[in-house]
Every structure is written in structure tokens, then in C-alpha cells.
Design a protein that fits this description.
alpha+beta, five-stranded mixed sheet, single chain, 5 strands, Transcriptional regulator
Length: 201
């Protein structure tokens, strides 16, 4: 069971791509190889193939990476399912995960993150959960996004160490940023997602 994340960068023309492209490529590279596992196309759209249980956490890391840039956000659809044909280029592969991701992406209007799986009850549950989560994540400041990104990338370090990594003055400023960004609640939601998705197979 795999997940395909289909995404596009919102308001990408407002920020020179040289400022954000290296950031997003670094994240995508950490989850696979271009172009088999991920590919950027049309300049500001991309697809990424990941294990289904990791998809939500990776999507939030991508969101934090993009929202470090003040003008930008990202619209993403997570499609979960089987892969019928795994081509040398992700954009030429197919299967239920790709179909679900594409259909979910087409339905995204104002919402910036959606998920479609083969399981109707799972979809309904996470439609509600994501709508609440996005009330916080869509409003991350560039500072909050930077802190959230580092916290996701370094789950084993404490807030003092995080302050050092980010060259911040104090642990208290890190703590305040994580609280504003809903970090603990996000971790709980990711754990719940992993638990529920593993029940499906």
C-alpha cells in the first residue's frame, strides 16, 4: 500500500523559484530518487511516491518547507492505494494510489490538503480532522514553519537543542513557536493517522 502526493505551489510567481526550489528538492530527495519516486513538472507542481503510513507527516513537512517563504503555500492531495505499474518516471506510473491522488487533487478548492483512500469511513474521518488542522497550519508564519520543519526533521532532539540548531536565543521562544504552530496536536494527529491506516491492511 503506497501513497502518492500530488501538489502545486500556490502563488509561486510571487517568489523567485531559486528561493524555494532547492528547499523542496532537498525534502523530496530525502524520500526517494528523481524521477522514479518524485518529479517536479510545469515548474511548480510535483508528485511524490511514499509509504502510505508516512504520507501525512511528509505532507506536513512539505507544507512547513514551503511556508518558510512568506508569500507561498502548497496545495496537496494524498492518494492511498496499490501501484499497478511502477515506471522509471513517477508521472508514467499508475494504479489506485495515482487515481485517488488525482481525483482528490481535482476536488481541492480552497482547502490546501486532502486525502482519498479506498476506505469511505477513513476518508470521512480525516476530512473532518484535516479541516480543523488546516485552520492552524494554513496560518503558520514563516518563523513557525521554520521551527515546525526542524522539529519534524529532528524528532529526537529537545527544545534547547532545537534552539541551537535554529540559532535562536532561547528554549522559551522555540516552545512558544511550537505551541502556536500546534506541534503537539499535529504529532497526535499523525500518530492517529498511522494507527488507523495500519488497521486497513
Amino acid at each position: 500500500m503506497k501513497a502518492v502526493i500530488t501538489a502545486d505551489i500556490m502563488r509561486s510567481r510571487k517568489v523567485p523559484s531559486v528561493l524555494w526550489l532547492a528547499d523542496i528538492k532537498a525534502v523530496l530527495n530525502s524520500y526517494g530518487n528523481e524521477p522514479k519516486d518524485w518529479e517536479i513538472y510545469r515548474g511548480d507542481s510535483f508528485q511524490l511516491l511514499v509509504p502510505a503510513e508516512d504520507a501525512l507527516e511528509i505532507a506536513l513537512l512539505i507544507k512547513a518547507t514551503i511556508k518558510q517563504h512568506k508569500e507561498l503555500d502548497v496545495r496537496m492531495a494524498i492518494g492511498v492505494g496499490n501501484i499497478d505499474y511502477n515506471a522509471d518516471k513517477i508521472t508514467e506510473s499508475n494504479g489506485a494510489a495515482f487515481i485517488n491522488s488525482g481525483e482528490c487533487f481535482e476536488r481541492l478548492k480552497k482547502q490546501t490538503l486532502g486525502i482519498q483512500t479506498p476506505w469511505a469511513e477513513f476518508n470521512s474521518t480525516f476530512e473532518v480532522i484535516l479541516s480543523f488542522m488546516l485552520m492552524v497550519a494554513d496560518n503558520w508564519t514563516s518563523t513557525s514553519a521554520e521551527v515546525i520543519k526542524k522539529a519534524f526533521e529532528n524528532p529526537e532532539i529537545n527544545q534547547n537543542q532545537l534552539a541551537t540548531v535554529l540559532n535562536r536565543k532561547s528554549q522559551s521562544s522555540i516552545s512558544a513557536s511550537l505551541k502556536r504552530a500546534g506541534y503537539e496536536e499535529l504529532k497526535n494527529m499523525i500518530a492517529f493517522y498511522k494507527q488507523e491506516i495500519k488497521k486497513q491492511w
